[in-house]
Amino acid sequence: xxxxxxxxxxxxxxxxxxxxxxxxxxxxxxxxxxxxxxxxxxxxxxxxxxxxxxxxxxxxxxxxxxxxxxxxxxxxxxxxxxxxxxxxxxxxxxxxxxxxxxxxxxxxxxxxxxxxxxxxxxxxxxxxxxxxxxxxxxxxxxxxxxxxxxxxxxxxxxxxxxxxxxxxxxxxxxxxxxxxxxxxxxxxxxxxxxxxxxxxxxxxxxxxxxxxxxxxxxxxxxxxxxxxxxxxxxxxxxxxxxxxxxxxxxxxxxxxxxxxxxxxxxxxxxxxxxxxxxxxxxxxxxxxxxxxxxxxxxxxxxxxxxxxxxxxxxxxxxxxxxxxxxxxxxxxxxxxxxxxxxxxxxxxxxxxxxxxxxxxxxxxxxxxxxxxx
Length: 373
What we know:
By secondary structure, this protein is an all-alpha fold. Helices cover 86% and strands 0% of the residues. The chain starts with a helix and ends with a helix.
């Protein structure tokens, strides 16, 4: 079922591309066709990770299901996002209806699109901090109904997120999404290179560069912000060092739940953009180019606010597992055993790959020494 669901986005992109070619929108058709090809290649490169990813997402949904109050917070933030989109739409409509030249108009639309994404990211990450704080408290205290669970914990998390931590949230929202997406693509491509040493060297350079950025800009920082009140860079560095010191980074790298949730957000945006584009085409065909992409961006951001609740639970589970695995064992012993088994497998896999590279380097050095003699 999971394999079918992640291919829905590929199919949708391909169908829209064909329809664009049929309607003589060749640029849009090429863009959608390239997107479908890249999406297909990425899914194929991570197809073996999907069973574990599905398991983690199921447990995250199980956790969120026991916290209905965090869903109410997410709905409230979606309402705030809708109000912002209404104001934003008036600005876009004013730019489109203005008499300025096309170049200035497109630049203004780019600026407005960036503002929409940043605002959406800020709202998503604010929800991220609130949900992470709640999930962490539930795991620490052994359940929602525990007698040691603090009173008004949700309101405290909400107040903390929109006051003390808001600066860190805004700062981190500028970078985390772009760096995560780049990291996913490089990881998927890197796993399928094979023995092409030149290409592997270039990809490893990019991978190490992105890994350095991830050390200072990652989504796990928001859990540290929610729980310990640190600054964003400090939180991101501490979270990544925690993962590397405990070996959980191998498990985090193997999991692609964030990518699957992103696919859901993109699919939601595409559906809303398609519906709005069809409506615009029936009213005035020349407005499709403006209405379709704008509606797609708005749909992506709105669905992303809903998806972040599950992603927050995933990140909190990994942080808790790295800090104290017994917290996960107390919450769900079967899930703890499954995570531990997968972590053991991933560490063994990394160890075998490192030994293979070391032996290959020794063989190359021996061959060079033999040829020199």
